[in-house]
């Protein structure tokens, strides 16, 4: 065999090896590490938005937050994506919470969407230290805060406090989602989310909250309209109402805080964490459906009864 023939044979074998490696990488979903300079950041972010919604199944709010993080990163890095540019960007803010949120978005964008490999996983989420149990406002302070809210936000306040639902879920409730029959006062939010990152099931409201809500429904004239949205109030308006009340009273309460107060009070009554997670929408739908007996309305109501006395403000 001549030298040229030998070289040709070696190249053919090398090609065969590379083809086999490529097949293995494809089978194992292995993507080689790469760098990239984005030519059109706006177009890239718009395409990512479609990917995040259709392929990743993320919620709209999550997608918008991630788009903002990706845009900030690309502006800082002049559209250059590599380990050095990511590190330089994450070093611009010392907040562990901020770094964690940015990194979640960048992992999705760089690893999952652009498929630049797994080098982004070399950046670890910031540890925030041991969780410190927070003291939440007592009933006296919550009642004081409640009374300075506008009438519609007062009703929302009681539903948030006594159900554990997210603010967006409460604002998305329709008349048909609330069952007042026989005093069960059940709130069905099981069809609230279509994405894969958030869940909701069903919860309840106290008799106190139910009375106020019924009065509100009678007053607005929508009780006989099952498909009507109960609270046609933008989330930002609700947040402004809470902010104004905080400034007037000096008591720092946000719509999201009431969900934490709910979970804290349920925990103090000895309710199992799995039921608190179900009330608060932290249990995957597959678990709920495969263990329906454990999470049936009647079983959940039994658990809720333990916490109801602590969830009433006695206004």
Layout of SSEs?
Blueprint: H1 3-27, E1 36-37, H2 41-54, H3 60-77, E2 80-81, H4 83-90, H5 96-113, H6 139-147, H7 151-163, H8 167-171, E3 178-179, E4 186-188, E5 202-204, H9 207-220, H10 235-249, H11 255-268, H12 273-279, H13 285-290, H14 297-311
Antiparallel strand pairs: 1-2, 3-4, 4-5
Helix pairs in contact: 2-3, 3-5, 7-9, 7-11, 11-14
The average pLDDT is: 85
Distance between the termini: 98 Å
Number of beta-strand segments: 5
General form: elongated
What helical percentage do the residues reach?
55-70%
CATH class of the largest domain: Mainly Alpha
**Which architecture name of the largest domain does CATH use?**
Orthogonal Bundle
CATH superfamily of the largest domain: Intergrase catalytic core
Helical stretch tally: 14
Show unreliable segments: none
Report on the biggest sheet: 3 strands, antiparallel
Describe this structure as you would to a colleague:
It contains 14 helices and five strands. With 315 residues, it is mainly alpha-helical. The chain folds into two domains: 32-122, DNA polymerase, domain 1 (Orthogonal Bundle), CATH 1.10.150; 139-311, Intergrase catalytic core (hpI Integrase, Chain A), CATH 1.10.443.10. Strand 3 (178-179) and strand 4 form a beta hairpin.
List keywords for this structure.
single chain, 315 residues, mainly alpha, DNA polymerase, domain 1, 4% strand
What's this model, at a glance?
By secondary structure, this protein is mostly helical.
């Amino acid at each position: 065999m001549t030298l040229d023939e030998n070289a040709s044979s070696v190249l053919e074998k090398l090609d065969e090896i590379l083809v086999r490696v490529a097949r293995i990488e494809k089978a194992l979903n292995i993507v080689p590490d790469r760098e990239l300079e984005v030519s059109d950041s706006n177009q890239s972010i718009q395409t990512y938005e479609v990917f995040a919604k259709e392929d990743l199944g993320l919620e709209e709010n999550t997608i918008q937050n991630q788009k903002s993080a990706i845009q900030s990163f690309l502006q800082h890095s002049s559209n250059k994506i590599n380990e050095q540019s990511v590190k330089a960007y994450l070093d611009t803010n010392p907040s562990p919470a901020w770094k964690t949120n940015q990194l979640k978005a960048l992992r999705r964008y760089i690893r999952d969407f652009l498929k630049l490999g797994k080098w982004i996983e070399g950046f670890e989420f910031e540890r925030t230290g041991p969780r410190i149990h927070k003291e939440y406002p007592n009933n006296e302070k919550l009642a004081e805060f409640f009374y300075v809210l506008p009438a519609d936000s007062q009703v929302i306040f009681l539903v948030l406090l006594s159900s554990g639902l997210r603010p967006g879920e409460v604002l998305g409730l329709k008349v048909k989602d609330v069952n007042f029959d026989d005093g069960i006062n059940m709130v069905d939010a099981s069809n609230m989310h279509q994405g894969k990152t958030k869940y909701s099931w069903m919860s309840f409201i106290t008799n106190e909250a139910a009375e106020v809500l019924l009065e509100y429904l009678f007053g607005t004239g929508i009780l006989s309209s099952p498909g009507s949205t109960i609270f046609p109030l933008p989330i930002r308006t609700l947040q402004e109402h809470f902010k104004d009340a905080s400034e007037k009273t000096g008591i720092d309460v946000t719509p999201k805080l009431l969900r934490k107060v709910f979970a804290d009070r349920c925990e103090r009554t000895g309710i199992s964490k799995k039921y608190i997670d179900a009330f608060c929408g932290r249990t995957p739908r597959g678990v709920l459906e495969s263990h329906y007996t454990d999470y049936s309305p009647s079983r959940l109501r039994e658990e809720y009864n333990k916490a109801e006395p602590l969830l009433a403000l006695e206004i």
